[in-house]
Structures are given as C-alpha cells and as structure tokens.
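Good morning,

Attaching, inline, the backbone tokens for the sequence recovery test we're adding to the shared suite. The designed sequence is right after.
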C-alpha cells in the first residue's frame, strides 16, 4: 500500500483532529505504533505542523468516519489516476554514496567480461552515466591505471538475477541480428546456477595449441629410430673381431 506525502505531519494531523486509533494511523503513515503514541504525548514531532490529508486530496472524510467507527478498518489512500506509476523507478539506478567509488571497477568488469552489454544496460545495472562508461571503454578515464575489474554483484551494486537477465537480452538481440555466438556466450544464456552445474569442457589454450601435435611427432620419430631393442647390446662384427685378437 502507498504511503501519504509528509507521513509524520499527516500522523500529527490525524492524532489532533480524529479519534482514529494509534495502530490505524501507524499503518496508514508507515510509522510504528509507539511513535504515533509519542506524537500524541508530545514527545515526538513536537515542532511538526499537521498536514491535512483531506484538503490535500489524499484521504476522504468518509474514509476517516469509517475508520473511527471501526477500529479494525485500515485507511487507504484516495485513488489518484495522475499518481499511478510514480512509484516505478525511472532512469539510472540510485547508488549509495558509500558505493559510488566502486562503480568504475564494476563498469570495467562488465566491459571486459560482458562486451555484449550496451552502455544503456550497464548504466541501469550499476547506476552510472554513458559518458563514464565510454571513458572506461576507451581507457581514457582519469584513474584507469588504478582500476581493477570487480564483479558488481559482489559489490552489491546489482543482483545476480538482474545481470543474468541483461546478458540474456543482449545475447538474444545479437542472435536476432544475425551475429554468431561463441560457446561462452551460449553458456551465458542459461542462469548462473545452471551454468555452474555444467561440466567444464577441456580446452587447449591458444598459446600451446601446437604442443599436442609436436609431442606426437617426437614419439613417432623415436619409434622409427628404435627398430630393435637388441641393437643396443649387439656390437658390430668388425669390432668384435678386434677384441678377440690376442
């Protein structure tokens, strides 16, 4: 349920002008019942001026009368069509001040390990701006030499489910546009739990891609050279005759 504007001031007005119970006021204003009792005793919000919810189109007089007659009735905000959808978040995610210094590290991690994500998706995940993302992509950020990539989920800047969903959308769009996905990108289409449960496929690092062929070739050459093991112990005939001479 939505909360009224200036909740504490609204609670002050309801305490002073109605006989609604403390619990009903607390539930309506999103406060604790003891806090509402403190308002009635003058210990809480002593300098706060009451805010009339009826005059400000948040509550009807009939709703107040119903609540006063029935202590179990829960107050509800007056329906306002213009206010519908206002509770939805718009624009970049809000990032607490204590975590804003971690955003460049998260951006670098996303750019490095999820290049398929667009600047708009990264902006929504970690709550940053597109110019900041662009400077990190181009490595022109003023502190780029000191930034280490860190998973934004580990830093608490976004949820794993949100990151998985963004990656799935990016890969789906790439596939729709005709792009060819690599094996790693295909694994990203499933959830994190599923990908962790998959058996890892052995892969030969590109830096030693020719090592296996080289080893087999060496072994084949040795097999060609060693035809008979007895040849190690049999001396040539001319050498044997020289040793027999007195």
């Amino acid at each position: 349920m939505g909360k009224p504007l200036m909740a504490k001031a609204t609670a002050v007005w309801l305490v002073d002008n109605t006989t609604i119970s403390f619990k009903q006021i607390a539930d309506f204003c999103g406060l604790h019942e003891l806090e509402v009792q403190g308002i009635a005793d003058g210990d809480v919000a002593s300098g706060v001026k009451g805010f009339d919810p009826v005059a400000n189109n948040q509550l009807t007089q009939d709703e107040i009368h119903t609540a006063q007659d029935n202590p179990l009735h829960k107050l509800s905000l007056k329906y306002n069509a213009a206010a519908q959808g206002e509770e939805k978040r718009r624009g970049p995610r809000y990032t607490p001040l204590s975590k804003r210094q971690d955003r460049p590290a998260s951006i670098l991690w996303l750019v490095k390990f999820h290049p398929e994500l667009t600047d708009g998706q990264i902006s929504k995940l970690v709550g940053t701006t597109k110019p900041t993302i662009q400077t990190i992509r181009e490595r022109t950020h003023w502190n780029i030499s000191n930034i280490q990539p860190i998973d934004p989920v580990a830093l608490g800047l976004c949820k794993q489910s949100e990151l998985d969903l963004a990656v799935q959308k990016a890969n789906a769009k790439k596939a729709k546009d005709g792009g060819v996905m690599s094996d790693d990108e295909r694994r990203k289409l499933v959830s994190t739990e599923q990908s962790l449960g998959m058996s890892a496929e052995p892969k030969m690092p590109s830096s030693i891609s020719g090592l296996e062929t080289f080893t087999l070739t060496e072994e084949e050459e040795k097999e060609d050279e060693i035809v008979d093991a007895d040849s190690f112990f049999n001396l040539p005939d001319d050498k044997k005759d020289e040793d027999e001479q007195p």
